[in-house]
């Protein structure tokens, strides 16, 4: 953020505000970690703040301090609408287009509050008074730490804030292995540990609380994996019937797409997941090196994200979507095999 933006925020927060903090639909560790981290900070500074999530978060994030206070727009609709209507200040975190909040979209467009965006995805929309956007950042949680630092308030980071921000940085960096992890990221993580982040406990709570059904679903996903060596690509399909057979719960497929990249020589990994309730195929893309899955997702699958991690969707059937994807690969042969 520049000095002008910092001054605007300091002025806004110098008086009592009714604040709403919003993550994207189907929130992940970075979305929940950043919103709760900011929520704790604002509450501790005397602000009236509420986190409203478009829908529920995965079970493996429910331990996070403040999670029980999140309003679920789907389940607590009237209360959430009232909070948005009455808000004087709205923070949108870990997304940069209002279309990423599902059925909350129209309510945010009609809101009279001042908007502040904190996000690290590409091509931000222009809806906020202050837009803190930086695609080089590992995570929105790292940006929330910086946001607090810009306000000269890192001394106010409590163990609750530290645990939330550490979780988002850990999950969005693939446990610190993605190329977006910088020396500054590690310095911030060290600072968060010093301020009370329980790094070992957080890792266990996020990654080591699997149900038997989730591991069986993972086995099904790996069995379905198709390896296309000529394109250095691997993809996974999961049908609605398979999800139902293994008692799918929200968040159960988190990280499945990354298994393709563990194969020697694979640079491009994809997972296609059927969602009959929404009538779409949800897609996650991952890559290594300079092959941009953000550009690929934007060009062909109504999506986007980062250079090495992106999402998309398809209105075709599961088989038609996979066939369409495979037929696209020859266009990118040079990029995938150079």
UniProtKB/TrEMBL annotation:
Pfam families: DHH, DHHA1. It comes from Cellulophaga algicola (strain DSM 14237 / IC166 / ACAM 630). One of its GO terms (molecular function) is nucleic acid binding. Residues 18-169 form the DDH domain. This is Phosphoesterase RecJ domain protein. Residues 249-319 form the DHHA1 domain.
């Amino acid at each position: 953020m520049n000095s002008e933006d910092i001054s605007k925020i300091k002025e806004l927060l110098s008086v009592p505000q009714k604040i709403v903090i919003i993550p994207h639909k189907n929130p992940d560790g970075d979305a929940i970690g950043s919103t709760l981290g900011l929520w704790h900070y604002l509450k501790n500074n005397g602000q009236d703040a509420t986190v409203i999530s478009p829908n529920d978060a995965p079970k493996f994030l429910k331990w996070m301090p403040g999670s029980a206070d999140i309003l679920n727009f789907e389940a607590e609709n009237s209360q959430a609408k009232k909070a948005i209507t009455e808000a004087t200040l709205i923070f949108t975190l870990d997304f940069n287009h209002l279309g990423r909040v599902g059925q909350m979209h129209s309510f945010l467009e009609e809101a009279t509050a001042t908007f502040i965006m904190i996000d690290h995805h590409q091509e931000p929309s222009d809806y906020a008074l202050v837009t803190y956007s930086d695609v080089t950042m590992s995570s929105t949680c790292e940006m929330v730490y910086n946001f607090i630092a810009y306000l000269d308030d890192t001394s106010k980071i409590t163990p609750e804030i530290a645990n939330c921000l550490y979780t988002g940085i850990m999950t969005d960096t693939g446990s610190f292995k993605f190329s977006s992890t910088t020396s500054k990221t590690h310095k911030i993580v060290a600072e968060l540990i010093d301020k009370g982040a329980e790094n070992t406990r957080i890792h266990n709570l996020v990654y080591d609380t699997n149900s038997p059904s989730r591991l069986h679903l993972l086995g099904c996903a790996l069995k379905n994996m198709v390896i296309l060596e000529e394109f250095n690509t691997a993809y996974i399909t999961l049908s609605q019937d398979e999800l139902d057979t293994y008692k799918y719960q929200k968040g159960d497929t988190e990280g499945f797409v990354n298994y393709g990249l563990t194969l020697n020589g694979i640079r491009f990994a994809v997972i296609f997941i059927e969602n009959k309730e929404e009538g779409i195929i949800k897609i996650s893309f991952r890559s290594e090196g300079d092959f941009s899955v953000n550009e690929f997702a934007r060009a062909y699958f109504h999506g986007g994200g980062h250079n090495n991690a992106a999402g998309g969707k398809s209105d075709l059937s599961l088989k038609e979507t996979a066939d369409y994807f495979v037929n696209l690969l020859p266009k990118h042969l040079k990029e995938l095999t150079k």
